[in-house]
Amino acid sequence: MSKAKENKKPKRWVGTSLRRKEDDRLIRGHGKFVDDNRLGEMLFLKMVSSPYGHAKILKVDVSEAEKLPGVVCTLTGTEVASLMQPFMEIGPEPGAKIVDYPMAVNRARYQGEPVAAVIAKSQAIAEDAAELVHVEYEMLDAVVTGEDAIQDKVILHESSGTNLVWRGLYEWGEVDKAFKEAAYVVNIDRLHFHRFTAAPLENNAILAHWEPDGRLHFWCNNSFPTFAIQFLAPALGLRLEQIHVKTEDIGGSFGVKITHYPQMAVCALASRKAGGRPVKWTETRTGNLTASGHCNERTYRNTRVALDKNGVIQAIESRQIDDCGAYTRYEPLGAVIWSQVVPGVYRVKNLRIDFAQVVSNKCPCAPIRGYSRLQHLWFMERVLDICSYELGIAADEMRLQNYIKPEEFPYTTPNGCVYDSGNYPKMLEIAKELVGWDRWVKKQQEAKKEGRMIGIGIGTTLDSGTNNFGQSRIINPYAPFSGNSEAANIKVDLDGNIVVSLGSTPQGQGHETTTAQVVADELNIHPDMVSVRTGFDTEWNTYTGHSGTYASQFAVTGLSAVHGAAQKLKKEMKKLAAYALQAKEEDLEFGVGNMGPELRVKGTDKSINYWGLANLVNVNNAGLPNEIAELTLNCRYIYRPPFQIPDLKRKYGNLTLTYAAQLHIAVVEIDPEMYTPKILDYAAVDDCGTVVNPMIVEGQVRGATAHGIGAALMEACVYDSVGNMLTSTFSDYTPITAVNMPKVHYGHIESPSPFSFNGAKGMGEGGGAALHAISAALQNALFEYGITIDDSFTTGNTLYDALVGKKVMQRANNVKVERGVA
Amino acid sequence: MAIKLQGEFEVRKKQQDVYNFLTDPNRFAPLLPDFQELEVQDNKHFTVKVKLGVSYIRGTATVKMELSEAQPPSRAAYRGTGSVVGGSVDMNAGFDLTESPQGTVVKWNGEAQISGRLASVAGGLLEPLAKKNMQNLIDSLKSALEKQA
Question: A131 touching B, CB under 8 A?
């Protein structure tokens, strides 16, 4: 290390905007993605998908396809079902009765569901051959809304006999008493959270190689491989040890790549049928949009809100239907995960939510960014906003009245979750300042005189991170999951280099960088001296059953594991250096000398570098005393958050360790002619506790903001009544790009978490603050026109139908207020 | 997505002649827009191939047809199902024939259910295309009926 570089060293690397270690290779085009892999004798797989949302499969004829030169083999649903067991179901009956194969057998239940596959020597031949597969269908009536599905008039899965996957009543506090004593009761008939997806830059891709000796290798971009292999192994009749999964660079996931294990199974069976040749499948964009994974769609019916005379919410009750698409896959976890954030950011004590999850003839859901909490937080924000307008209380005042106060943290929610820290009023104050609240309020009044419709809206949200998997038992008491864990391994390599491997599967979150920052601080070296292995490999990396990158947890679980492993390694290094230097451990310090990273005796010129230490352990160990001989300089640590199993009867317990918060303010104008909403100004304030790398955090805040704005105004998975997805290309499903992004004024505060070693909180999902803020801004602009924003997706068309056609969003049809109830 | 069309026209032909024409695939099928090929299985079943081009989806649609109702000389109806690149079509078409002073009035109705990528990519284009093709078909039908001896 040069003197100049050492002189630039900050006091701590954690907290600095260190440039991402990953970016050098990614910017130079040296990143390695699944489709970059080429293996000898590799074949290509093309799925033949159902054009129907719901149909009987009468016949699959692959004979013509198999005759095409270059085609090696084919697979059909019936054949797949004969080669494997159905995937396990997480939930209890009736959902557990669903029989889930990776290919449709006898019946297709969503458009895009694979019904056959062609495996050929080239992608082009596979594409041509797929068109020669003749499938005879008999179209069936489809069910495409949660509200219709729950009526069971059309049933998707004969085996379960109902579309209901799971239903449960969540009740905490004294709901009836609160309603009796309320000054106001606001009734909201229907709210709806729409379907959208994540549209990562890189679609799903798999390269499978089932060797004749029984070893099954996957090069893939699955973002939760430890979860995937637990589904794949029993279904394919393998031991976990026989499945090798390797990920490298992943072009985004946002949760959507968690649930492509069915396609992994198809590729594996194809490889086996092809005589053990590797088989690659690369998803098309239309395939990704129609058949990869959508976020959970939720409808909120018969919502009642009890408020006191000051507008403080006393109780909420609601009947909610979650539509998880055609198969359960990751579900019904979404039927409990929302309860991590039951009251949102508010002091509501009494809640009664009748929650049902159903299947429908739509793409199965995936745990997409903000999974299930996003839907609930949008609901809470809509409830608060609608009540504020109905009661004539300004939306910002209403929030201040209802926010959990800074001095109340750690705050225990009605269902026993413990919000670790936060300061929502402060965030509101900063966001108002950033956006120029007072200036916009003035402008809004002036614009109104000109007939312009401008709205200012606030979205306050949570990003709960580090799940307690014990919450799965609220859904299924027999679920064999609880707690959480993450592993990391750190070693001093033979040449003295520090090498870290993680249990996580990063997809752009900068784990290599933040890990290096933590290790560099521990060892008092530069982060460039820390090698963090790219990607995840079940043969190389250390992991637990919870390992992965999901649910906003790396800053806590991942870095805690890294920190723990570094602590263990430091102990060993000190012990070894003390022996080598004939010094006391307490006299040693870590640093960088002329021979690289070293341990030295304080105040002397005695030191040993890392190569010397590694040499002693690995290749020059004759005569080492017993107490030294046990050292490996190769340390694994598993971090386990201190969770308990929730009280299943009361549905009560701490379900998440940390609660990052985001507060956004959007200023939106509705075009008077086209009715298109346009963002005029925007502010985002983040609080994720102690910030490990401000640049990465800000990047994630901006990314989550873009995802939310896209979801609010541009992105929707729209289906017609027979289950055709009408937004199956980027012409119709218009993902947000930089061109559509407003300038975002960014700010942050730090409320360190008392529950993580570094005060950090997971924050990658963002909690959908942009969705909430835009709905709120539209509400602010349109309340006086008799409009209630009752859907999370708003376009110029819907606003035209609302304002001109008076067909939708009509407050008079949806919202009723009972005054003076008490 | 469903496309429903209906209409009526009059031809200077006897009801029985019109009925015979409409239930004879060898005479009727070639009138379909962009007709390619016909294969008759029996007196109630045939397969017709027509060229299709909507937006960037182009290919040949293979449609299996069945004469589902035959009430000579007043009514004939077809049921069909077919596949095309990126999609499927399920259709029903009915013809009700009544005598008129000038010949025969043909009341027709058709319903097509389009599924798959065809519906999602070309959805907005399908209805006008279907209307245009249907008008072409009716014109051809009238012309053919009035020409036949």
Answer: yes
Nearest chain A residue to B85 by CA: give it. Answer: A131
Backbone φ/ψ region at A110: left (φ over 0), alpha (ψ -120 to 50), beta? beta
Partner residue opposite A139 with nearest CB, options B86, B113, B120: B113
A720 touches chain B (CB under 8 A): yes
Residue with tokens 């999902």: A765
Query: CA angle A71-A74-A77, nearest 5°?
Result: 165
Considering only CB atoms, which chain B residues are within 8 Å of A51? Answer: 83, 86-88, 115-118
Task: Tell me how many helices (H) and strands (E) chain A has.
Answer: 24, 30
Strands A677-687 and A745-748: parallel
Residue A8 has pLDDT above 70, yes or no: no
The first and second tokens of residue A363, run together, are 């793409």
pTM value surpassing 0.90 = yes
**pLDDT attached to residue A6:** 46
| pLDDT tens for each residue of A629-686 | 899 999 999 999 999 999 999 999 999 999 999 999 999 999 999 999 999 999 999 9
Q: What is the phi/psi pair of residue A253, to 5°?
A: -140, -55
Q: Is the peptide bond before A406 cis (omega within 30 degrees of 0)?
A: no
For chain A, residues classed under CATH 3.30.365.10 are 3-31+485-639, 165-197+293-470+646-819
Q: What distance in Å separates the CA atoms of residue A602 and residue A252, rounded to the nearest whole number?
A: 46
Within chain A, which residue ranges are assigned CATH 3.90.1170.50?
38-140+204-285
* 8 A C-beta contact, residue A662 and residue A685: yes
List beta partners, residue A590.
Answer: A599
Interface-testing mutation among A54, A724, A733, with chain B (most B C-beta atoms within 10 A): A724
Nearest to A725 by CA among A116, A113, A203: A113
For residue A290, count other CB atoms closer than 10 A to its CB: 29
- Answer yes or no: CATH 3.30.230.70 is held by domain A38-140+204-285: no
Contacts of B81 in chain A (CB under 8 A): 136-137, 139
CATH of A3-31+485-639, one of 3.40.50.12780, 3.30.565.10, 3.40.50.720, 3.30.365.10: 3.30.365.10
Does the model's ipTM exceed the 0.90 cut?
Answer: no
Name the minimum distance, in Å, from the CA of B87 to any CA of chain A. 5
Q: Residue ranges of the alpha helices (H) in B1-149?
A: 15-22, 25-28, 117-147
Contact A734, A426 (CB under 8 A): no
Helix (H) or strand (E) holding A667: strand A656-670
- Span A203-213, mean pLDDT? 97
pLDDT tens across A516-542, in order? 999 999 999 999 999 999 999 999 999
Architecture of domain A165-197+293-470+646-819: 2-Layer Sandwich (3.30)
DSSP A518-572: HHHHHHTS-GGGEEE-SSEETTTS---TT-SS-TT-IIIIIHHHHHHHHHHHHHH
Asked if A557 and A484 touch (Cβ cutoff 8 Å), the reply is yes
